[in-house]
Amino acid sequence: MIPPTVSEVRALHERYAPSVEALDLVFTHCEIVCDIAEQLVAQADLPLDVDMDLVRVGALLHDIGVYRLFDQDGRLDHRDYIRHGVLGHEILRQEGFPERLCRFCSCHTGVGLTRHDVRSQGLGIPEADYLAETAEEQLVMYADKFHSKTTPPTFLTADSYSLRVARFGEDKVHEFGLLRARFGEPDLTSVRGRYGHAQV
Q1: Omega of the bond prior to 186 within 30 degrees of 0, cis?
Q2: Range of the domain at 19
Q3: Does some domain include residue 185?
Q4: Which of 56, 62, 78, 124 has the smallest count of CB within 10 Å of its CB?
Q5: Which residues pair with 70 in a beta bridge?
Q6: Domain assignment of residue 166, yes or no
Q7: By the 8 A CB rule, do 106 and 85 touch?
Q8: What is the pTM assigned to this prediction?
Q9: What is the pLDDT of residue 56?
Q10: Dist CA 118 CA 71 (whole Å)
Q11: Region of residue 74 (phi > 0: left; psi between -120 and 50: alpha; otherwise: beta)
């Protein structure tokens, strides 16, 4: 598989974004996740056996489904936000991307959604396991936890995300802890300086 270039990914975002504001919110977030993933690999004590081209493209594409959740007035539908990963998977599949790229969309939510999570929480997505399996998928999912598309967008520390995910159960806190031990914690100082978003 020859991954798309950054300019090709940007063009895809531009095609699906319903507004300049939506493009700025989503594509900037994807760039930040890519930056964080690259930093985590660069600072690892032991070399991480990952395909960095795949990580970069996966990070830049992972939230493309968010565009389908904006209404006619440019408001983001937060109630159905859980669907953005599945919607992104559909977009990339329709665009002819291979499954290994589509999965970056559907398998990055939280620290992974199980079939049991979908059923027990009544999530509005098809009942299935949406779990990051490869090192590349896990790295993008983990890097995604350090930035949020809130209004205004914010950076999160590992501790603050751990507190957030606790509402979904101790098993999710444990899963995040495993990712934290494997990939380490990013230094958000430089990326915060580049994008100017606050940290919580």
Answers
A1: no
A2: 6-143
A3: no
A4: 78
A5: 76
A6: no
A7: yes
A8: 0.97
A9: 98
A10: 25
A11: left
Helix H segments across the chain?
A: 6-16, 20-43, 52-61, 84-94, 99-106, 115-120, 135-144, 158-165, 170-183, 189-195
Number of domains in the chain: 1
Q: Amino acid letter at 132?
A: A
Provide the β-strand partners of residue 148.
154
Comparing CA positions, the residue from 85, 93, 149, 92 lying closest to residue 112 is 85
Residue 24 three-state SS: helix
Q: How many residues does the chain have?
A: 200
Provide the residue type at 68 as one letter: R
Residue 47 resides in a domain:
yes
Residue type, 167: R
139-155: per-residue pLDDT in tens? 999 999 999 999 999 99
pLDDT tens digits in sequence order for the chain, 200 residues long: 788 999 999 999 999 999 999 999 999 999 999 999 999 999 998 889 999 999 999 999 999 999 999 999 999 999 999 999 999 999 999 999 999 999 999 999 999 999 999 999 999 999 999 999 999 999 999 999 999 999 999 999 999 999 999 999 999 999 999 999 999 999 999 999 999 999 99
Q: Which residues pair with 198 in a beta bridge?
A: 154
Classified as helix, coil or strand, 188 is coil
Element (H, E) at 154: strand 154-155
Residues 6+ apart with CB under 8 A from 31: 60
The distance of Cα 148 from the centroid of its chain, to the nearest Å, equals 9
